[in-house]
Amino acid sequence: MGYIHRCKAGIDVPEHAQVVRTMSAELSRMLSHLLFTATDALDVNGGFTSHDARSDDNHDARPDDNHDETGNRQVPAGGGKRLCMEFTATVEGVTEVGPETVAVTVSAPAAFDARPGQFVRLTATVDGEDVSRFYTVSSPDTDETFETTVGLGGGDEDGPDFSAYLADLDAGSELAVTGPFGDQFYEGEQRALVLAGGAGVGPAVAIAERALADGNEAAVVYRDDAPAHTERLDALRDRGASVVVTDGAIGALVADAATGDPGEQAFVYGFADFVAEAEGALEAAGLDADDAKIENFG
Length: 298
Known about the structure:
The chain is of the alpha/beta class. Helix content is 30%, strand content 30%.
């Protein structure tokens, strides 16, 4: 419609009709672009197969329609920089890391590349029902294995207690894994300032460990009345990181930990009430909360 300049019957098109036609064509073009932008936002986040995965080069690189040579399904995640994969992982071990908290370590294929702060979906059959939950990666790397931190005791209102199921797994058990997801992760920033509440300690220690391993700086402000990963937190202190654990307000602690240096990146991981407090603490410390990488657990 947008490119028809004259009716085929030979009738002259009035000027006002030409204006309406041009406006309609432009609106149609704008809507097409908006539709692409909206759907592509889902694609690049790893939720659906991106247009990048259907390009000739990528299709040739992944046989059997986006499956690798082992049969693992792969689609671009995080703008195509990493692969969002579906694979079966073997449980390497389940370790208690704090009150009502365990770390579940599973095997990872060579192509799996999750960064500290990203999350995965774990799926298993529990009481005859397929159950899936999302858990944030809590290991500094995913070479051969990776870890997720699982809080217990909360239960699941809409089905089996999947966290309890994970805690009871034996080495050699299998889980279906999909991921990684999320774009709020460590990318080699010169200084990582991580604010963590409750289960957010998992990505906090992972980011701090990765930052130190990269030769960068790290600071952790962690709130929990029953702290987990205390051994890793102590080790971070020994390696030179600033680590503060509290069960109270975090405002003054964040102000002390923040430097305001250009290379400093703030990260926030926790549930909604903690995230809101952390954002306020960052602003009070002179940082822009909009620049922080935030993962709200709900």
